[in-house]
Design a protein that fits this description.
Length: about 400
Amino acid sequence: MESLRKLISAVGSGLREAPGRLYRSVFRSSYPLTLRQQLSVVVNNLILHVHPSRVFRRSIKPSTTFGLGLMCLYLFIIEWVTGVYLMFYYEPSTGAAYGRILDLNYAVAFGRLMRNLHRWAAEAMVVAVVIHMCRVFYTGAYKPPREFNWVLGVVLLILTLALSFTGYLLPWDQLSFWAITVGTNIVNYMPVLGPKLRFLLLGGDAVGSEALLRFYTLHVIAIPAVAALIINYHIWRVIKDGGLAHPLEQNPEAQRMDPVVPTFPTVVYTELFVLVVLMAGLTAASLIFNAPLEEEANPLLPSNPSKAPWYFLGLQELVSYSAFWGGVMAPALLTLFLLVLPYMDRSSEGIGIWFSRARTGMNILWTFILVAIVVFTAIGVYLRGPNWNFYWPWEGWPGPN
Ligand code: HEM
């Protein structure tokens, strides 16, 4: 009897201590309770050490960043994880791709959920990256010393669009086939290089098996690998450039008086909270809405209208006015503007302040560009129907793809 009691008490205390032991085996110290431990946990943790050990309290106020950069990072990781799941089943050949997507939708365990998550996270990433860029712009955070990090951001924007675009073809249905046909036709309008670039991208003159293989390789390895490297560099630069843009950074004495908080636990738990909310929203969306899938691709039966993916519909709309000015010059000038912006607009006024009055002119210019992009995109999505004619939504045209 005595030995049984001893055994039970030994098992009980073993169980009580197990979580602590497990925690120590992973993190190499006990759960940090003192400030000293909390500061050192950030320095000694592989993932957390990208943070400084303390941050300004204003950095974690929701209105400073709205967690947008973090959401871009999370969405990229979600794409990676769900993408690997899809890769177990997908086959990049014109004969098999569509069937594999049907399998994912109807036969594979969690296949539909994973596909939906992958699709909605991709769309959310395009939106989040653009809004993150707007937040950086409207707080003047692209100015020195962060000008190169802004340029890295522009590259990330292009890579995000490229990731989404290359993934669009993979289901090999009518929607994806004709969207990519139209999207890659826009490349043709580039003088001299256009047709050669398009040939290189498609591995031929038309979207076919070579194009599917190229898009697949770009989508699952080439672009994600480059994007992952640049995302790491981008986040590292945020810290090296002095942390998030701060209104007092021109005056280090005054800035030093601004209250700080330890990164652990305040920032870490805030970041985890953002992850939980984002995952909950995406999972709910993926349970309710299915990723689109039409009939299998048929190169002999063009869909009418053939629309590019929605984020390129503003461009397609411009192309319908003038192939050269809309399809080549407008995107080229916009990209050039984004790349040179932080090297031209260098004054330190208004850094870290939303819609600073000192930057009224630039804020108006940016808003004008933004509204133009949204208006042209909305026309392309909602108001264009067969033969790219103009239709009001209530005129019977079935609506956006
Ligand atoms: C995959 C895309 C991207 C990821 C994962 C990402 C990630 C991040 C993160 C985590 C931060 C710090 C927190 C925050 O500001 O919310 C940040 C800041 C920054 N990002 Fe991005 N970003 C991306 C795209 C972009 C784009 C498109 C731009 C602009 C063209 C940009 C420019 C910047 C700049 C200048 C900062 C510093 C802001 C400041 O100091 O206040 N990023 N980014």
